[in-house]
Amino acid sequence: MSVPRVIVKAFQAVEKAEGAGARVRRSIGVPQLRNFSPFLMLDHFTIGDKAGFPDHPHRGQETITYLLSGSVDHEDFAGHKGTIHAGDLQFMTAGRGIVHAEMPGKNEGGSPNVGLQLWVDLPKDLKYCEPRYRDLRAAEIPQVSVDDDRVTIKVISGNSHGVDSVKDLAYTPVWLLDVTMKPGGKLSQTLPKGWNAFVYTLEGEVIFGDGTKVGAFHNVVFRKEGDGIDAIVPDNAAGNARFVIIAGEPHDHPIVQYGPFVVTSPEEVYQAMEDYQGAKNGFERAQGWESEIGKRMLRFR
């Protein structure tokens, strides 16, 4: 018999200002949940067309950006550029060093651009790999429906009910499932043993295996022990529930983070700052580089 995982904690993510005019609900990288290996940060962001994240560096981690509505442009110092739209994802590996910008699109009616960005720690032996990008379009994401179509799962990364995702999206093994449940729906989702796992709720109310009812914008953290996550939405619920299930294989190395630099020792932090400021050891192309999309911010000042 399947044994569901037990909840360790559940807390609401409070919206705060971040970047240049953006609003975020951060639920990893806060006092309630910090360095939940391999996860470093989770932001549920809202950015209007006059806000954004202009030129900034990274080293030692991967970022996964899942756009829920609107569009976001990206550009880096290696010449990579593109746009993701609602339902699309971008998997960015910073590796030894990247400088890039992420700026929102302009939507009809001025509606904001909303999404999730997850920071994932790289394995120690890949901290200094070459940077890379992988876009995953909404049309590439397989779906599966269960419980008489009361539950629909977008299998972004991993496996659900026999349906596999696209492969080789990130270096660190991570599962990411987007779940929508109608009133009366029931879900039993298996997860890899020994992986850390959490749920972030986007809308509605959902009851997990131990009877805990959780509303929107909560991070729900589960114990490693158990076979997976059980969830139900009561028959009398006011509407659908939507949440993401995220699980990852934890690393066994120290995490030393200074802003966008995620390494394994204080010495590596100092080296990262020196490399970025001196445009060397992976940051050579940062010398004098400015993104075109980042210049949008100048027009709003």
From TrEMBL:
Tagged with keyword Chloroplast: no
Looking up PANTHER family in the UniProt record yields: PIRIN (PTHR13903:SF8), PIRIN-RELATED (PTHR13903)
Q: Which GO terms describe its molecular function?
A: metal ion binding
Segments forming domain Pirin N-terminal: 22-120
Keywords noted in UniProt: Iron, Metal-binding
Q: Does the keyword Metal-binding apply?
A: yes
- In this chain the Pirin C-terminal domain maps to 177-281
Which family does the record claim for this protein?
Belongs to the pirin family.
Q: InterPro entries, from UniProt? A: Pirin, Pirin_C_dom, Pirin_N_dom, RmlC-like_jellyroll, RmlC_Cupin_sf
Cofactor: how bound: Binds 1 Fe cation per subunit.
- What's the name of the protein? RmlC-like cupin
Q: Which SUPFAM superfamilies does the protein's record reference? A: RmlC-like cupins
Positions that bind Fe cation:
H56, H58, H100, E102
